[in-house]
Amino acid sequence: MPAGLIALALGGFGIGLTEFVITGLLPEVAADYGVTETTAGWLVTGYALAVIVGALGLTAATTRLPRKPVLLGLLVLFVIGNTLSAIAPTYGVMMSGRVIAALCHGAFFGIGSVVASNMVAREKRASAVALMFTGLTASNVLGVPFGTFLGQALGWRATFWAIVAIGVVAFVGVLVLVPTVRTSDVETPSLVRELSAFRSGQVWLSLGMTVLGYGGMFGAFTYIAYTLTSVSGFASSTVPWLLIVFGVGLFVGNFVGGKLASRSIDGTLLWVLSALTVVLALFAVVATSPVLTVIALVLMGAFGFATVPALQTRVMHHADHAPTLASGANIAAFNLGNALGAWIGGLTIAAGLGYTSPIWAGSGITLAAVVLTLVAVTAARRTRATSTGRTATGSIATV
Question: CB of 275 within 8 A of CB of 213?
Answer without folding.
Answer: no
